[in-house]
Amino acid sequence: MIIVMNNGATEEQIETVVAKIRSFDLDANVSRGTERTVIGAIGNERKLSPEMFDTLSGVEYSMHIVKQYKIVSREWHRDNSIINVGDVAIGGDQVQVIGGPCSVETQEQMDSAAQHVSDAGCRLMRGGAFKPRTSPYTFQGNGEEGLKMFRKAADKHNLRIVTELMDARMLDTFLEYDVDVIQIGTRSMQNFELLKEVGRINKPVILKRGMSATVSEWLMAAEYIAAGGNHNIIFCERGIRTFETAYRNVMDVTCIPVLKKETHLPVIVDPSHAGGKAWMVPALARAAVAAGADGLLVETHPNPCEAWCDADQALNPEEFRDLMGSLQGIAAVIGRSL
Amino acid sequence: MIIVMNNGATEEQIETVVAKIRSFDLDANVSRGTERTVIGAIGNERKLSPEMFDTLSGVEYSMHIVKQYKIVSREWHRDNSIINVGDVAIGGDQVQVIGGPCSVETQEQMDSAAQHVSDAGCRLMRGGAFKPRTSPYTFQGNGEEGLKMFRKAADKHNLRIVTELMDARMLDTFLEYDVDVIQIGTRSMQNFELLKEVGRINKPVILKRGMSATVSEWLMAAEYIAAGGNHNIIFCERGIRTFETAYRNVMDVTCIPVLKKETHLPVIVDPSHAGGKAWMVPALARAAVAAGADGLLVETHPNPCEAWCDADQALNPEEFRDLMGSLQGIAAVIGRSL
Amino acid sequence: MIIVMNNGATEEQIETVVAKIRSFDLDANVSRGTERTVIGAIGNERKLSPEMFDTLSGVEYSMHIVKQYKIVSREWHRDNSIINVGDVAIGGDQVQVIGGPCSVETQEQMDSAAQHVSDAGCRLMRGGAFKPRTSPYTFQGNGEEGLKMFRKAADKHNLRIVTELMDARMLDTFLEYDVDVIQIGTRSMQNFELLKEVGRINKPVILKRGMSATVSEWLMAAEYIAAGGNHNIIFCERGIRTFETAYRNVMDVTCIPVLKKETHLPVIVDPSHAGGKAWMVPALARAAVAAGADGLLVETHPNPCEAWCDADQALNPEEFRDLMGSLQGIAAVIGRSL
Amino acid sequence: MIIVMNNGATEEQIETVVAKIRSFDLDANVSRGTERTVIGAIGNERKLSPEMFDTLSGVEYSMHIVKQYKIVSREWHRDNSIINVGDVAIGGDQVQVIGGPCSVETQEQMDSAAQHVSDAGCRLMRGGAFKPRTSPYTFQGNGEEGLKMFRKAADKHNLRIVTELMDARMLDTFLEYDVDVIQIGTRSMQNFELLKEVGRINKPVILKRGMSATVSEWLMAAEYIAAGGNHNIIFCERGIRTFETAYRNVMDVTCIPVLKKETHLPVIVDPSHAGGKAWMVPALARAAVAAGADGLLVETHPNPCEAWCDADQALNPEEFRDLMGSLQGIAAVIGRSL
Lengths: 338, 338, 338, 338
What we know:
3-deoxy-D-arabinoheptulosonate-7-phosphate synthase (chains A, B, C, D); TIM Barrel; EC 2.5.1.54 (chains A, B, C, D); 8-stranded parallel β-barrel; homotetramer; 3-deoxy-7-phosphoheptulonate synthase activity (chains A, B, C, D)
């Protein structure tokens, strides 16, 4: 941590800062510049926080030098971590496309979806039984009944299932239906109590980025899960909120190389929620894989026009199959497979 | 709802849209312009959603004409709603300043804080027992023990207490300690399961704005609470996230007149979290009251330098008292009291 | 400037950084921490830039410790600067409200506007002769003819005039009509060639904030003007662009106390462009004055419904007069006059 | 255009709106819904603007139905437009990579850069002679001397040159040195006077997106150029400003498919400015081509460590050559060449 003193800071003020650093068993390095004195804290600076110093008189500002996340950082673990979902690996050479509908509607719909997702070559399937909806007056998901339908449809095709957990009180039910990958949605990224709960189990967790979360906050949210003992974490970029109104969100491809540098954990992308319209999905999906994503979450529905939610962002089976073809080509160019 | 057709939309495509509208028992008005045909749905358009139409061929886009929130809207209830917290009214002529520390630390700290908050003229007090923290490695609040200390300190000075609920599983404990006003924090604004829970009780709820939530999403979040039967909702603006890095958040004063127009419920402001530094708080607090806020949440601590969290944003007792003085002046100018 | 080395940086890499610092005649302070080595450059760090070091191997990142602006900073000039426009002072105890229409339309309109602006107690008047419009197909202003009408109307009431310069090639014409205060619009804040031109004259300049400019970029833009020799600069906040769509821009009140701390120059606010609707203006104007603004730019039109541009954001003469009354009250509370 | 009336709008208020529409020689369609009356204006709605109606009593809001841009829209010209720069086509099957240094430094540097850009297979070269810099105290470019060096170096390798114009007064000089493609920088996107000037010539223009410009504003800025008669416009996405601070800007890949739908003109991307760090460029460049970009602007320097500006974002010759290889692979997957 460095503490930058005001232009006219007195010796006494400098001494107070130094004493505070030492009171935490750290050393202090005082560098007297022409315009500012800068004090560095030497030792485990994670014990300190800027607000401890910013209130002292004579201090202009202070800041951490090292990152606040630890277990999830690449410094802690140099090699890529591979997360195994049964016999399917996320984070290795193979790019995993997780296809499926926005929400679990009926057993017929799920059976048909599982069939076409499996035919297209996917090994994992997505689908929501509990839906976070902006309005209390819209369809909120089929709940436990939905989990049951999903499990049944997926098992027939040997697909692992990915579904969202919104409430810690439902965790036991998720474990009962043996949900293979638990998804923490964008609105729950900083639901710290929920993060602590999934940190206590050993199921893989997809942690979606909050729609306005910085990369640093996102890594810290993952650290909550990791600190509990569960290191099976997969980051999922799903579009960020900006000033632009011509599309729902901006898919942040830049975060892909940045996360690959900062963390050893896999990074996947959800181009369906990012763009919000089915016709944008192929371009965005290709961009994500070209930028180095370890996988994708793609919405596809047997009959998009009749989907109960987000109808306009699901690919139909044919569009989905075509997309898988071009993704295979892109993956090959950068030395990966699909 | 209006549906705008593409430039070259065919008669058949127009007919399909009209038929879909009628299938929901609404009427359709077809307006053929020189460049576009626009179809209006006449009747209770809340049954419809844009995604139902955006997937039909020939449709360019569609949009709601009426707002999706209802109970919280001023159309539903023309007069200002006043929320009573015991004998203290929020939303009336009196502007309520809710002072207190960021977190409940010790009984001594709370006793001292309650004393100076009460001396300054406040009728409500704030303080966090459960703290949402970005890092899992920082102080997470004193929990139930904190509620106990808070209740005790406040009762001595006849102060009503405001504190944050982060987890539905703690609601019974909050009721046990008779928390007077339950605060839903910025990170929980779209924790829909939590909103549903506080919708089932009849305690006043302060609903903080998500740090990147639109006014419309915020009103819809309140609608979740209201739809459950609890109409005692108070909106709280606490700064929004923007591109600016010179300060933590931007206090959005514009939302004050806008909310007062859209909803009948009270609107308060938290200038402490918005700015993030104690020296900014007086200017921001004055601005909020001048813009029409019904109250403020202000952090004040008996000894800010030793606060366990957010030390740099708390006012000391003297600064707090001074601020109360100037707020009284501003309130008087616009015909209110403090 | 400090340079933070990677965790595993070698002695040789550290030496290279130190040598680079010394090659600019600055000293280096090397602080070896447990996780990072931090190198401080001691001397006039404005000669250095982060990109000089970020390319060197072993460097994690580097950053300036002192601000890059100088003449406009409060460190350079401790007291408030007062900008004199004839006998009217901006930045002193008196808050200046600059009223007038969005654009100069006709001589009659300007005569009537000047009359009501003067009657309401203003000493300066605004009006656009050259209009930056998003669409090439809309009214672009009356140009030189507009300046003439404006000058004539204002002189009759002894009002100083404020109008926008969009093109360096028009500067001579502005001087010819003796424009009292030159406004640099939001879209021109980083038109560096234009800034250099107004830096060469000695007329007061209102520098509007770019709608997505950081406070730091804004101060640097002012430094361009100041570096040319013209220190008569007035900052004008006019709303920033955010994710919110319920109103055009978010008026950033937080920047007022921040600027007053960082610079000695006056800060005014334009609540009309910030909100975009006339009914929001009184609340926003009061908030700005309460937060410490030195003045306001307010749109008012003899007959808003017939205004040629931004009709929906202009106050009518009566609304304007009422607003002036409440602003007087607010100013008095914080020890100022109107 | 549609005008939505308030819930309680009177017949008289509706009549006033209808009369106003008719006064512009348009027809009105009145649709009386259960909660709102909606009035549609039928005819050339570009004559109208929302602010004309929003000031009338009884009006809730009004909005355009058709887009305000015309010449640049795909409705006006269904096929892709190909912009010819001599014998090089932008917007056809071939993806054009425009390589070169941030700024023109010396003749030796430019000769060397031109050599390696040409060797890598590029047909166009970039380089700045006039540099828009945030600080007035940093290198502002070599000016006319720079254009001369650039022209000379490029001619030796038959490369077309792309360089930024910041000031209308320099246009003649640009024509004198026969600059092949004029770049309008991000800070000039809404410098309307400059847009009008380049609209009067027939040189190809690269119009960079303002760093916080919406797609709609960007298209309107292009319309300024097109309205003057110059239809040789190339859009260039260069990263947008968001709340994220871990990287300079967020490269907006979503705008690529959206622009390809909205306009017939080519779209290129500048991954160097978007990310701000050389190590991010390959991932971003691949993503842009995979998403359908017609070309790229990539910074490359013979010796990045010694570059006079933006040293940390330039690729060295070897990295640049490698990138060209993988881009060729990506282009082939989507049926294009490099």
